[in-house]
TrEMBL record:
Signal peptide span: 1-20
Biased composition (Polar residues): 322-335
Keyword Lipid metabolism annotated: no
Location(s) in or outside the cell: Cell inner membrane
Keywords: Cell membrane, Membrane, Signal, Transmembrane, Transmembrane helix
Membrane-related topology note: Multi-pass membrane protein
Origin superkingdom: Bacteria
InterPro entries reported in the protein's UniProt record: ABC_transp_permease, LivM-like
Main localization of the protein described in the UniProt heading: membrane
Residue ranges of coiled coil: none
Bilayer-crossing regions: 30-49, 54-72, 78-99, 106-123, 155-172, 205-230, 242-267, 279-297
Region Disordered, residue ranges: 315-335
This protein's name: Branched-chain amino acid ABC transporter permease
């Protein structure tokens, strides 16, 4: 995406609260931004590294529960608990990654699916720590500064937007770095990457840790936004929702997670008036998107741009050839 387009999107995001017709729309967009951060984390391990992690929603819940329990039960303020949530998800991501990434392809996916279900069971049954089905209440909101109060919807929206911009910036730097290209090489084939001297285990674990840290960041922001969490935050359905956002937007692309998440979140919100029947319309709509945009919105756009460049390149070559011929003719005449 060109810098001008990026600045236009950022400007639109900044003025969105002024354009929204009510505060609820600002809240929905802030929620979409939170989920987009988590989807960017999934894009690291799945889109760039090629490992399907089905426990991603569980790590999202770990970040939310870490912040919730530290602020509600231990009396911590938001920001120290926020940092602790990132550290906890990173450490647990390292431990799970070291074990699970010894497996390949669908075996890895099945193992992480089991890990995600175990996380859900622990949050639902370990009442002494997680409060069980009752959940965690009275979670602290981030404290602001001066006249800025993050307990209000609009200031919190800008806080989440700042974290989203940083997440996208970091993802862009990562994708263009040697490490990002190493992840892509692993995605394209373990044997090929290993023949190039790439340490598969170390790089896969690093990708997994970065991915879970993104999930923990999103989970902590989510807990500070809703101020109440329960075991359903670790439900496997959230992982499949994030996979859907990623596929619709464009897996392995920079803007795909953002476009996919915002699109699906607003589509589901637009169908709220249908209540339980909205999924009857949403399902076929999703199928149509997958059929006509198999590489996602961003992936399809990039493919179109590539074909357009290939179509125009012969014409440009012919034009350049004519210019070169005319120039050489002028040189001969002058000689």
């Amino acid at each position: 995406m060109k810098p001008g387009a990026k600045m236009a999107l950022l400007a639109l995001a900044i003025v969105f609260p002024a354009l929204a017709s009510n505060e609820y729309q600002v809240y929905v967009m802030a929620s979409a931004f939170v989920w987009a951060i988590a989807v960017y984390g999934l894009n690291i391990i799945t889109g760039y590294c090629g490992q399907l992690n089905l426990a991603h929603g569980g790590f999202f819940a770990i970040g939310a529960y870490t912040l919730g329990l530290l602020t509600s039960d231990a009396g911590w303020s938001f920001w120290p608990a926020f940092v602790a949530a990132l550290l906890v998800t990173a450490v647990l991501g390292f431990l799970v990654g070291v074990v699970s990434l010894r497996l390949k392809e669908h075996y890895f996916a099945i193992f992480t699916l089991c890990v995600g279900f175990i996380i859900y069971l622990l949050m639902d049954k370990w009442e002494e720590l997680t409060h069980g089905p009752v959940g965690v209440r009275d979670i602290a909101a981030p404290y602001g500064f001066g006249v800025v109060d993050f307990t209000e919807t609009t200031p919190f929206y800008y806080l989440v937007l700042a974290f989203l911009v940083f997440s996208i910036w970091f993802m862009g730097r990562l994708s263009r770095s040697l490490l990002g290209r190493t992840f892509i090489a692993i995605r394209n084939g373990d044997e090929l990457a290993q023949s190039l001297g790439i340490n598969l285990m170390r790089n896969k674990v690093l990708a997994f840790v970065l991915s879970t840290t993104y999930a923990g960041l999103a989970g902590a922001l989510y807990a500070g936004m809703v101020r109440f969490i329960g075991p359903e935050e670790a439900n496997i359905i959230h992982t499949f929702d994030m996979i859907t956002y990623l596929l619709v937007g464009g897996i392995g692309t920079l803007t795909g997670p953002l476009l996919g998440t915002i699109s699906i979140v607003w589509i589901t919100q637009s169908l709220q008036f249908l209540e339980e029947y909205r999924m009857i319309l949403f399902g076929p709509l999703l199928v149509v998107l997958v059929i006509f945009f198999p590489r996602g919105i961003t992936g399809q756009f990039l493919t179109w741009m590539h074909h357009k460049a290939q179509t125009l390149s012969p014409a440009k070559k012919e034009k350049a050839s004519k210019v070169q011929t005319a120039t050489s003719g002028e040189v001969k005449n002058n000689a």
